[in-house]
Amino acid sequence: MDAESLLDGLNERQYAAVTHTGGPLVVMAGAGSGKTRVLTRRIAHRVVIGDTDPRRVLALTFTRKAAAELRTRLRHLGLRDDVVAGTFHGVALTQLRQRWAERGITPPAILDRKYRFVSQLMGRRPGVEPLDVVSEIEWARARLVSPEQYPVAAELAGRTSPLPPAELAELIHRFAQEKRQRRVVDFDDLLALAARDLLVDPDYAAAVRWRHRHLYVDEFQDVNPLQHELLKAWRGQSSDLFVVGDPNQAIYGWNGADPNLLRTFTRREPDATVIDLTDNYRSTPQILGAAFAALGGRGGQMTANRSDGPLPTITAYASDHDEARGIAEAIRAAKTVDRPWADQAVLVRTNAQLVPIEQALVTAGVPTRVRGGSGPLATPEVKAELRVLGRSGGNLLDALRELDENLALAASKTDDLAAADIERNQNVDALSRLAHDYLTIDPSPTGPGLLAWVTTIAAGDVHLDHDAVELATFHGAKGLEWPIVYLAGLEQGFVPISHARTAEQIAEEQRLLYVGVTRAEHTLSLSWAAERTFGTRPAKRQPSPHLGALQAAIQRLDRGRWSVDWQTQVSRSRHALGTETAPTRPVTPFEPATTPEDQVLAALQAWRRNRARAADVPAFVIFTDQTLRALVQRMPANRAQLAATPGVGAVKLDRYGDELLDLLRQSTRSR
Ligand code: ATP
Ligand code: MG
User: Fold this and answer.
1) According to the model, what pLDDT value does residue 297 have?
2) Which residues have beta carbons under 5 A from ligand 2 (an ion)?
């Protein structure tokens, strides 16, 4: 791409950020305002105008998915495999491996089963969940909190220590000691060791800093103090630093991230230039309205650049299975010839929630992104190829070239191959892509380096490029976008998550919901289930407390659309309120007559209001507006027809079926 086209289509502030020269630069702006776009364009533009050697760029982010997104976008801008774009952990690991190789040090084993390690260390402690202990250990590490400081720091941060704080401090200490003794390192050690190497050896630091002399960080609100130390070590005295972030999307505080590092950036960097982006390019005004409500009306509202789209919907399902089935049906219905599956994503708060959804999608014949250990990495053909690449030592590039040639040859003969062979080739192709990703972050790639990277950093992150609906957690979806997004399981206990207790933790959960909502470009479907099975135990569920605000926002947006015609609006809102009070303005003789449908809807709304009042829940918990409209449209006359109406699940049918049929029957008679 030429310099001009890289500046094409940027707004004034984006342009300023892309072309800024001299001094550190920070862009702080809302979701979908083009932060990542500016970051990738700036890299590409500087390369094209000859200001930057792409091999000297280090672009950092925090999740593997986000790193993959960065690489994809850079490739689209014409930068192939040159720029180092990865996570802090990934880059630190490759740096260390290189250093160890140079110095003839046998690399320590990476501790990937921390849970087991810590439970052994704890001994039998009934009632104490080792995972909670692990997250305290990790939090302390991320915050650079020593065992001695832990009790006070934890108290100040409002942590609930799973063990008495002094005991946990002792465990943190023993954990570090035990790792040293067994000569294993965990992921956080990678960061600390990489930083230490730079601090103790100025010549080495100068070489590394020369290699990574243009620094970029996406999603800077999620940096933790340990990562920040490493960033400082990489940076040295250089002012060639560009960071982008959004404090309203800070979602890793629980794990030790410190969004203040973004907020106070200019205090630490008095020379920094700050650029704010206020235009949103991702989402329709309707989705932005919902996003604003999800944040509790806080945060600057952005100007929407997209045209109107459908209103977000809220669906209450009787059970998690109904919800999963409902989403699968909606996904199938939205699939058209020119809309690939990959345009749709289902996002949830916890990994476990993905299981019933994935099952329902598979049952409905919807392809999903293969996740975790069951992906292509686990297949025998990929394991075999990985062994070959791993053994290639310093000749990884040759081995990879050979693999790519074989793949290209196989691809040219697809017509003659059996389906199973095609699938095997696709799996190996996924490995090849992963290996190319590895090449981007390791300047002197080797077979063992690839093996270490694939099995530690990239494990569970390999997926085939086939067209599929993406399933992800809110955390995993950060920085990504899809035309159609389903946010499922919006229930108390998930949104906010049950272990969030302090005001700060609850605020973080709210930001997480904002991250979820702002992934949607055009269509947003929110849902929850009144019953959910955990193991074999079904449990009653309540809607997320945020759904009330979202519902209210959706209603406001709905009214906004009608506001062009205030008479209609008055008429409709009168019906909606079910009141007979005179309108505040004189009604002209042209006021549209109410239709029979309006009357049925008003009757249903009045019924719903009474029911909601009696049960002390928001109205949409009884039935959403969408369901009421579906009832008016279909006018079900018996239980079977009622059950077939979208939004009427088994529980609702049982509870309200007779009343509703009565009400609808009366309405029909009076028509
Ligand atoms: P997030 O905070 O969610 O990571 P972001 O600020 O990084 O969001 P981007 O992902 O860079 O936002 O941009 C959102 C979408 O808007 C992308 O599809 C991007 O290509 C598009 N976009 C950004 N700026 C413009 C523009 N000036 N013109 C057209 N499209 C744009
Ligand atoms: Mg982004």
Assistant:
1) 81
2) 35-36, 479
> How far is the C-alpha of 612 from the C-alpha of 629, rounded, in Å?
17
Q: Pairing state of beta strands 520-529 and 303-304?
A: unpaired
Ligand 1 center–CA 280 separation, angstroms: 7
578 pLDDT above the threshold of 50: no
437 in ligand 1 pocket by Cβ < 6 Å?
no
Q: Which of 667, 669, 654 is nearest to 628 (CA)?
A: 667
Q: How close is the Cα of 42 to the center of ligand 1, in Å?
A: 14
Going from the Cα of 31 to the center of ligand 1, the distance in angstroms, rounded, reads 8
User: Which ligand 1 atom is nearest residue 10's CA?
Assistant: 27
Q: For 3-87+212-277, which CATH class? A: alpha beta
The reply to whether 312-544 shares the fold of 3-87+212-277 is: yes
Q: What's the CA-to-centroid distance between 260 and ligand 2, angstroms?
A: 19
| Cβ atoms of residues 323 and 317 within 8 Å | yes
Among residues 534, 390, 562, 375, the alpha carbon closest in space to that of 463 is found at 375
Q: How far is CA 281 from CA 242, 275, 302, in A?
A: 21, 17, 10
Residue-wise pLDDT for 324-343, tens only, equals: 999 999 999 999 999 999 99
Nearest ligand to the C-alpha atom of residue 33: 1
> CA nearest 347: which of 188, 226, 514?
514
Please tell me the residue having the least CA distance from ligand 1 atom 30: 281
* Residue owning the nearest CA to atom 24 of ligand 1: 34
Helices of type H across 453-535: 503-517
Classified by CATH at the fold level, domain 596-670 comes out as DNA polymerase; domain 1 (1.10.150)
At 430, is the pLDDT very low, low, confident or very high (cuts 50, 70, 90)? confident
Closest ligand to 247 CA?
1
**pLDDT tens track for 592-628:** 335 677 778 888 888 887 777 776 566 777 888 888 8
Q: Which value, in Å, is the radius of gyration of the alpha carbons in the chain?
A: 28
Question: How close is the Cα of 506 to the center of ligand 2, in Å?
Answer: 23
Cα distance between residue 527 and residue 638, in whole Å: 26
Q: Tell me how far CA of residue 395 lies from CA of 173, 238, 387, 391, 446, in angstroms.
A: 41, 34, 13, 9, 7
Atom of ligand 1 nearest to the CA of 519: 3
CATH fold of the domain at 312-544: Rossmann fold (3.40.50)
> What are the sequence ranges of the domains in the chain?
3-87+212-277, 109-182, 312-544, 596-670
**Summary count for the chain: helices (H), strands (E):** 29, 17
Atom 2 of ligand 1 has which residue's CA nearest to it?
A: 31
Our answer on whether the CB atom of 41 is closer than 6 Å to any ligand 1 atom is no
Hunting for tokens 């090849």 — which residue is that?
Answer: 432
Residue 110, H or E segment: strand 109-110
Per-residue pLDDT at 581: 31
Question: What is the separation of C-alpha 653 from the centre of its chain, rounded to a whole number of angstroms?
Answer: 35
Q: Is the CB of 37 under 6 A from ligand 1?
A: yes
CB of 511 sitting under 6 A from ligand 1? no
Fold for domain 109-182?
A: Arc Repressor Mutant, subunit A (1.10.10)
